[in-house]
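quick one, 258 residues, struct below
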Amino acid sequence: MADELEQRIDDLYALPLERFTPERDALAKELSANGDRAGAARVKALRKPVVAAWAVNALARDDPDGVRALIELGDALRSAHRRAVSGGDVEPFRAATEERRQLVNELTRKSAAILEGAGGATTATTEAIAGTLEAATVDAETGELLRAGRLTRPVRPPATFAGAGLRVLEGGPSRPAAPAEAPKPRPDAAKLRRELSAAQARERRAAAAVERERGAIQDLDRRRSQSKDRLRAAEAELRGVSLERKRLVNALDKLTDR
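---
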C-alpha cells in the first residue's frame, strides 16, 4: 500500500498544474473513506507546486538522463571543490564548474520549452528554474526532490559554492590554498532544533488554516451553484404558472362575454 501511495503522489505531481489541487483533494477523500487517515492527512498537506517548480518536475520526467547527469555532476563538483580548497589542483573544479554552467543552461531551455505549452515562461520563472537546477548540484536534498519530480517551490542557489570563497581559483595546479579564516562559532544545536520544531508546528497550523478556508470557499461555491440551479427552476416554474394564469383569464373572459 505504501508503494501504491507513493506512486499516486508521483502521479499528482505529474499532472497539469491546474489539476493538482482537485486531484489531491479527491485522493485525500478516497484515502479517508478507506480508513487511511494518515495517508489522507499526508496527501491533504501536499503543496501545489509554483510554476517554476512544476516546470522542473516536468523536466525530471521528460529528461531523467539529463537530470541524473546534473546531480552526478554535483557530486563531482563537490569533490573537486574539496581538493581545490585543500591546496590541490584547481583545474578539475574549474572544468566541472563550466560543465555545470552549460548543463544548467541546456536544462533551463528545456524547462522553458515545457512551459510554452502552458502559457510561456517569464524571465523571473526562467531565472528561478536555473537557480533551482544549480542548487541541485550543491544541496543533496534539493537534488533528490528534483530527481523525484516533487519540488513545490524554486530553490535559491548559494552565493558561493558550499558557502566558501574560492581564492584558489586564481592559481594553477597544486597551488597552496589561501589561509582559512577562523571558523565562526557554531549555533547551539539544541536551540536550533527547538526553533525548527516551533517553525514546523507554525507551518502545519498555517497549512491547516489555508485548507480550512479553501474548503469553506469551495463549500460556498457549491452552495451558490445549487442556489442558482434552484433559482432557475423557480423562474421556469413561475413562467409556466404565469402563462397558465393568462390562459385561464382569457378563457374566463370569453365565457363572460357570451
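The two ends are 83 Å apart (CA to CA).
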